[in-house]
Amino acid sequence: MDKSIKKLLGITYLNIEFDDTQPEQFHEEVIKGQTVTVWRFKLTYHRRCDQCGFTLNNNGTKLVRHVGPRSGFHFNYFEIRKQKYICANCGHTAIAEFNDVEPGDHIMRKVKQTAAMELSENVSQKHIAMDNNISTHTVMRQADGLFSYNKTNFHYLPKHIAFDDFKSG
Fold it and tell me: Rounded to two decimals, what is the model's pTM?
C-alpha cells in the first residue's frame, strides 16, 4: 500500500518511507488560508563520508517541509524527517538527500514540471501559480528556464543562405 500512495503523490525516490514515530501518516492543516494535506515521511539510508570514505554515523534528524503536487482537490505538503550524519574519522557532516527535490529547494520537480507544461496554454502566470500552490516568481523562473533551453543560437551563419524571395525597392 505504501508504494501505491507514494506513486499517487508523485514520489519516485525509493529510500523514503512513512514516519513510524508519528501516530498518523497524514493530517490536514490550514496553510495560507487553504486546507492542505501534510504527509509525514522519514528519509534515512547508509552513507559513506564524501571526504574520507568511512561509514557515517547517525547524528539526529532535521524536519523539512516540501511543496508536493496536487491530488484531488487538496494541495500536498511533505514533512520529511531527514537523517543527519557525522563522520567519526574526520568530523564531516551531511544530511540525507531527497532526489525528487533540488538541493536547497522546497518545491518538488513534479510541481515545477506541471507549471512549465501549463505555460503552453493560454493561462496567466498568476493562475498557474495559484493552481500549483507556488509563487508567480517560481512560474517566471520556469518560463526563463524553458526559454534558455530552447534558445536559438545566432552566433553563426548557416553554410547556405537562400535569397530567392528578396525584393528591393
Answer: 0.76
